[in-house]
Amino acid sequence: MSEETTDRAVIYAGEGRIATIKLDVPQRGNALSIPLMREFRAALQAAQRDPDVAVILLRASGRHFCTGADLGWAAAREQGNEESWREGNEALVALLHELYGLAKPVVARVNGTVLGGAVAVLCLCDDVVALDEARWGLPELKLGLVPSAIVPVLRQMAVPHVIRRLVFDQAPWTSVEAQGFGIVTQVATAQTLDSHLRARLDAWLALPSAAVAATKRWMRELDAEAFRRALETGREHVASL
């Protein structure tokens, strides 16, 4: 087993054919700060490059999975700091692009709250095993923010009426509902979360890695240009506000 800590926000560990990426800032709800997003992206790249890695496991420390964009940059524009807002937005878009282009499957273990940009991250995972008690939501509009990076990802997963429910209805939803929306693969209790996760990891490990990678690339390429355009258009609309 080898382990590397990329600063204090993300822990990367490789064991056998599984690379584990852990969001590790529980005191801040594992919020998507600029440093965390950059470390997260670097960890994904490291796992993709490692020929011994067949599956990437995404998990988080503490009682929240991820509470969305860190307001240090997400609210910076309203405070007159355009540069910080742009830097954070670019880091989020780069992270989503990285996830979108991965050839290796990503399995997520969701142990708690999922908000904002974390919903987009999980939409781009291949398998999501979620605690039934986890709370989900997209509070961007309530905070006066436009979900310009989130909506293009939702369009990969959900039909228009579901997207409207997620974006405009500020009521939180459950993991069971997230499964109905197509984000969650399997809902588990606190007692069964890890056993369900292990079963999903084993299922991916049983598949030929080369065939999985080729299929993932082909499926992503079918919509790659539309995904890129949607992200670019979202940034243009936000920039014009």
Descriptive report:
The chain has 241 residues and is of the alpha/beta class. It has one domain: 2-enoyl-CoA Hydratase, Chain A, domain 1. Helices cover 47% and strands 20% of the residues. The protein has 9 helices and 11 strands. The N and C termini lie far apart (49 Å).
The chain-level mean pLDDT equals 90
**End-to-end Cα distance:** 49 Å
**In CATH terms, what is the architecture?**
Alpha-Beta Complex
How many structural units, i.e. domains? 1
- The whole-angstrom Rg is 17 Å
CATH superfamily, by name, is 2-enoyl-CoA Hydratase, Chain A, domain 1
Q: Helix fraction?
A: 40-55%
Helices and strands in order, then pairings?
Blueprint: E1 2-6, E2 10-15, E3 18-23, H1 34-49, E4 55-60, E5 64-66, H2 71-74, H3 82-101, E6 106-110, E7 113-115, H4 117-123, E8 127-131, E9 135-137, H5 151-157, H6 160-168, E10 173-174, H7 175-181, E11 186-188, H8 193-205, H9 209-239
Parallel strand pairs: 3-4, 4-6, 5-7, 6-8, 7-9, 8-11
Antiparallel strand pairs: 1-2, 2-3, 9-10
Helix pairs in contact: 1-3, 3-9, 5-9
Note the main attributes of this structure.
241 residues, alpha/beta, 2-enoyl-CoA Hydratase, Chain A, domain 1, 7-stranded mixed beta sheet, 4-stranded mixed beta sheet, globular, disordered N terminus
